């Protein structure tokens, strides 16, 4: 049995955190005899520099034929003024669309030993364990028209928010299926007091919810949700929401844990799954060996669980992350809490050594 994993390090700290993930993947592949073959390709700014295109067709094809994809991050100031079809972020959008990755899972877990690491009071964040289920291939990101045109002699920007019933139904089922395996509550977040897409969203979610009588449904307006995430984050189990709201709320939720460097994600659809940290390429800290690789390592755990069918390898990584955090180790972004501050590569090595120690013991 062998598995193919495509690695897309991308730009900035993307390459630094994926390097740490490679060490863990190689070890777990050997240890469990999974036979993972990795293949590395350029995406984002790195691909623009080499090939003048954010992602080559053959890279998209390689991802489609792989068992899983691990992406670091794309983007950076060097490419910020490029035209919209030549922006590094286009690579990410194309991969999501072409791989059909409509279901983006972003788990937010506050480790008890890290409750002091959040800028919020420890009693507010202690015990937080929520999952953002973000629709990933619709809404404002993809709706047409999307352009800057001339209207009444003036430059005018247009983006289009568009959702079909089918798109809403499938992400709703994904959220309710996830809630069934958790604490059985879905908060559907929309702006149904204003937006037509949200009115259809609310109606559709309510109808699908009837198929899940064992799961509690509440609707919440997105502005209120942004506030409740700070006021009482423990009140959430699964947050179901559209693409743009999910993007914003998940960065906000990241700070419950203390750092965006802690938040992993899985993007799922009918084919190959893609795994990536929620954070970006962090140009302000790139090249310094201080980026926190834990979001990426936790994403690798999700990859073993959802795409490689290897729960044991997934829990090995998650248990090692908990053990290392509980022992007071962390990276610079979490240093207000950490007793031992590690570099990116030291953190990768630490996690690997804890995995090996446990497997040998
Ligand atoms: P960002 O997430 O890159 O950085 C925001 C802040 O968080 C920065 O101060 C950064 O240093 C810090 N940070 C992020 N990840 C960290 C980590 N692992 N460890 C420690 N600190 C970390 O967001 P941004 O600055 O708004 O965007 C920078 C670039 O990244 C942009 O070009 C943006 O388009 C791109 N981006 C890409 C992705 C992706 O590829 N998935 C996601 C978000 C942003
Ligand atoms: C994310 C990022 C992306 C998004 C960007 C880089 C296109 O912010 O994955 O959260 O907005 O989806
Ligand atoms: Mn984002």
TrEMBL record:
Write out the annotated subcellular location. Cytoplasm
Q: What is its EC number?
A: 1.1.1.85
Q: Which cofactor does it need?
A: Mg(2+); Mn(2+)
Residues that, per the record, bind NAD(+): 76-89, 280-292
Q: Which InterPro entries match?
A: IsoCit/isopropylmalate_DH_CS, IsoPropMal-DH-like_dom, Isopropylmalate_DH
Positions that bind Mg(2+) = 223, 247, 251
Where, by residue number, does substrate bind? 96, 106, 134, 223
Query: Per UniProt, what is one Pfam family of this protein?
Result: Iso_dh
Outline the extent of the Isopropylmalate dehydrogenase-like domain. 4-351
Q: Which reaction does it catalyse?
A: (2R,3S)-3-isopropylmalate + NAD(+) = 4-methyl-2-oxopentanoate + CO2 + NADH
Task: Give GO MF terms, alphabetically.
Answer: 3-isopropylmalate dehydrogenase activity; magnesium ion binding; NAD binding
Cellular component per GO? cytosol
- Site feature location: Important for catalysis: 141, 191
Keywords recorded for this protein, A-Z:
Amino-acid biosynthesis, Branched-chain amino acid biosynthesis, Cytoplasm, Leucine biosynthesis, Magnesium, Manganese, Metal-binding, NAD, Oxidoreductase
Assembly: Homodimer.
Q: What is this protein called?
A: 3-isopropylmalate dehydrogenase
From which organism does this entry originate? Natronogracilivirga saccharolytica
């Amino acid at each position: 049995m062998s598995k193919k994993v495509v690695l897309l390090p991308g730009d900035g700290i993307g390459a630094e955190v994926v390097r740490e993930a490679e060490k863990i993947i190689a070890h777990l592949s050997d240890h469990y005899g999974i036979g993972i073959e990795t293949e590395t390709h350029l995406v984002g700014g790195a691909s623009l520099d080499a090939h003048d295109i954010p992602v080559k067709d053959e890279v998209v094809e390689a991802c489609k034929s792989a068992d899983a994809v691990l992406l670091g991050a794309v983007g950076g100031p060097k490419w910020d003024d490029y035209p919209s079809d030549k922006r590094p972020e286009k690579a990410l959008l194309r991969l999501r669309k072409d791989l059909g990755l409509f279901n983006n899972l972003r788990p937010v877990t506050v480790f008890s030993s890290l409750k002091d690491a959040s800028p919020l009071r420890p009693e507010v964040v202690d015990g937080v364990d929520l999952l953002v289920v973000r629709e990933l291939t619709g809404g404002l990101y993809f709706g047409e028209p999307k352009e800057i045109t001339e209207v009444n002699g003036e430059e005018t920007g247009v983006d289009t928010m568009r959702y079909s019933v089918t798109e809403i139904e499938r992400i709703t089922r994904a959220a309710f299926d996830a809630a069934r395996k958790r604490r059985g509550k879905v908060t559907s977040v929309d702006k149904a007091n204003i937006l037509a897409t949200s009115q259809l969203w609310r109606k559709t979610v309510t109808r699908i919810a009837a198929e899940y009588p064992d799961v509690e449904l509440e609707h919440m307006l997105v502005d209120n949700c942004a506030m409740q995430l700070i006021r009482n984050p423990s009140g959430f189990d699964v947050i179901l929401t559209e693409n743009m709201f999910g993007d914003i709320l998940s960065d906000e939720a990241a700070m419950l844990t203390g750092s965006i460097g802690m938040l992993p994600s899985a993007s799922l659809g009918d084919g190959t799954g893609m795994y990536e940290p929620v954070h970006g390429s962090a140009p302000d800290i790139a090249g310094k060996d201080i980026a926190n690789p834990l979001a990426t390592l936790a994403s690798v755990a999700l990859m073993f669980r959802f795409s490689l069918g290897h729960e044991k390898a997934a829990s090995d990584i998650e248990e090692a992350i908990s053990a290392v955090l509980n022992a007071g180790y962390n990276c610079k972004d979490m240093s207000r809490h950490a007793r031992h501050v590690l570099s990116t590569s030291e953190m990768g090595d630490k996690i690997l050594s804890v995995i090996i120690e446990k497997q040998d013991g």
